[in-house]
């Protein structure tokens, strides 16, 4: 689950590559909200076919992330600086097993454009242009080296794809589509992230 928590942070941050860290930080901090659809394929070494999940996400600046999986079954997660919570149909339930403070801090740093926070855990390599860019994160900390070989993020105006290559041979691919920037939020989303 630690991998999924970290993944959530990387999933939907808006990135544009301008060949400097400052441009990257500015771009990450620009949108007030990003909403869209996701398809996540989890390729486990032990399985011949990937596990596929689909749903919607909403990221609101300085508030957090709402991750609404619809297939294969519905589950709603809210990620804020207070932690990760799951909606039970009536209220948000804190489940300590869903995340650890280190991953949440890393995630929130990424959401706020804290490249320095990422650089404490990863070596960051930027390539491409603002129309088609790639960020490669190579683990630098002992914890991240135990989990990931590499994380690759690709996009243009927004993130389009994230690939997590894990040390034990598993891989997660997340594709984002129908991204909408600074659009009105549904009532449930707005209330969940207040």
UniProtKB/TrEMBL annotation:
Cited SUPFAM superfamilies: Prokaryotic lipoproteins and lipoprotein localization factors
InterPro entries: LolA/LolB/LppX, OM_lipoprot_carrier_LolA-like
CDD domains: LolA
Domain of life: Bacteria
Transmembrane segments: none
Keyword flag Protein transport: yes
Keyword 4Fe-4S part of the UniProt annotation: no
Keywords: Protein transport, Signal, Transport
GO biological process: protein transport
Subunit-structure text: Monomer.
Name of the protein: Outer membrane lipoprotein carrier protein LolA
Species whose genome carries this gene: Rodentibacter caecimuris
């Amino acid at each position: 689950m630690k991998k999924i928590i970290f993944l959530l942070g990387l999933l939907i941050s808006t990135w544009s590559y301008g060949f400097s860290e400052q441009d990257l930080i500015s771009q990450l901090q620009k949108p007030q909200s990003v909403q869209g659809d996701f398809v996540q394929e989890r390729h486990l070494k032990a399985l011949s076919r990937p596990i596929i999940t689909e749903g919607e996400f909403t990221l609101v600046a300085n508030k957090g992330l709402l991750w609404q999986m619809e297939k294969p079954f519905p589950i709603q997660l809210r990620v804020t600086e207070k932690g990760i919570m799951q909606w039970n149909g009536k209220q948000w339930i804190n489940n300590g097993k869903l995340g650890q403070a280190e991953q949440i801090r890393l995630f929130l740093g990424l959401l706020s454009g804290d490249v320095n926070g990422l650089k404490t855990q990863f070596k960051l390599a930027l390539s491409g242009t603002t129309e088609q860019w790639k960020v490669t994160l190579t683990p630098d900390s002992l914890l991240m080296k135990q989990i990931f070989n590499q994380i690759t993020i690709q996009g243009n105006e927004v993130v389009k794809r994230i690939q997590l290559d894990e040390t034990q041979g598993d891989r997660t691919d997340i594709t984002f589509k129908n991204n909408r920037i600074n659009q009105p939020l549904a009532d449930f989303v707005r209330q969940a992230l207040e």
